[in-house]
Amino acid sequence: MACDSIPWGAYYAAAAFTEAVSKYCVNCPSEMTVEAEFWNQDNKSRISSGVYRGMRNGVFSAPKFRSFTEAFSQP
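Above: the chain sequence. Below: its structure as C-alpha cells.
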C-alpha cells in the first residue's frame, strides 16, 4: 500500500500522533497512554523500515501542506 511505503503517509502520521499521546499527554488517564503506545507500535510496524528510518533521521523533507480547497479543486 502507498500508506506504508511513502514518506509522510497515513501510518507515519498516525504513529507520530499516538507516540505524542503516549509520551507527552499529562492529562490522559493511564489506560489511554497504554492504548496509544499499543497503536503507536502497530502503526510503526506497518511502515516500510527504510522509509521509517529515513523519516526519523531527517532524510525526507517536510511534507507540503496544502489547504483542502487547493488539494481537491478541479484542474
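The chain has a mean pLDDT of 81.
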